[in-house]
Amino acid sequence: MTQLTTKRDEPFQLGTVALLLVDMQRVWLEPGLDPGHPEWTSDHYFYREVSSRVIPNQRGLLESARRAGVEVIHTIIQSLTQNGRDRSLDHKLTPTHVPPDAPEAHPIALLAPVGDEILLKKTSSGVFNSTNVDYILRNLGVRHLVIAGIVTDQCVDMAVRDAADRGYLVTCAGDACAAPTPERHLHGLRVMSGYCWMTDTATVIRRFDALRPEVDLPRIEQNDR
User: How many CB atoms lie within 10 A of CB 134?
Assistant: First the structure.
């Protein structure tokens, strides 16, 4: 029997790694817009964590990914129909519904897609369940999938587990994720750790930076020395 030598933290290779940002959209990140928590103000734990830690870390991930030419995919929760009849049963029961023309569905400006980065709209917690992300990743030749976003123990957890089950080597930048309470966030990281390489933003950035092509320096001719 051939011994398996693959490890979850094996080095990234350019052309086979992608960054997936989960649900970093206005409705969940701007106080007063979340219909499920209209009472939350800007000093709520979740908003403080997102503004002080998660968004800056994801900005770092995005900038390093873009410099290195790493594929970037964004997901948002958004219904295809005005009344949300296309949503999953769970989203209907919750209820979670972001209409197709709602401006608050858009990613926040600091993390918005640029160029031809891919934006996928989903109607369930799991991006692999209600989008064609698996088809897209395979067409892109992706082997390593780096995941960050919200909420740690819900949509991020689903993305990590489903990606692992489909054969991707998953990396989670735990300090670029958040949940409504510190307990939920830490619990989410613990249960996900069996399905991914759990690491931090700085480590992922170093790996992305290592993928950047070296700058061609001008040759120094012998007679110029």
Answer: 17
Condensed to tens digits (0 to 9), the pLDDT of residues 139-197 reads 999 999 999 999 999 999 999 999 999 999 999 999 999 999 999 999 999 999 999 99
φ, ψ dihedrals at 185, nearest 5°: -60, -50
Q: 11: which 2 tokens? A: 């080095």
- CA distances (Å), 223 to each of 101, 217, 219, in order? 66, 17, 11
- Residue with more model confidence, 215 or 23: 23
Cis ω before 151 (30° cut-off from 0): yes
Whole-number mean pLDDT of the chain?
93
Q: Cα separations (Å) of 66 from 10, 38, 61, 69, 117?
A: 21, 35, 9, 5, 10
Assess contact for 165 and 43: CB atoms under 8 A: no
DSSP H helical ranges for 33-179: 45-49, 55-68, 89-93, 127-130, 133-140, 157-165
Distance separating alpha carbons of residues 27 and 183, to the nearest angstrom: 23
Residue 103, phi-psi category: left (phi > 0), alpha (psi -120 to 50), beta (remainder): alpha
* Per-residue pLDDT band at 76 (split at 50, 70, 90): very high
Buried b / exposed e over 12-43, threshold 16 CB at 10 Å, is beeeebbbbbbbbbbbbbeeebbeeeeebeee
pTM as predicted: 0.91
**Residue in the structure block whose two tokens are 């109607």:** 123
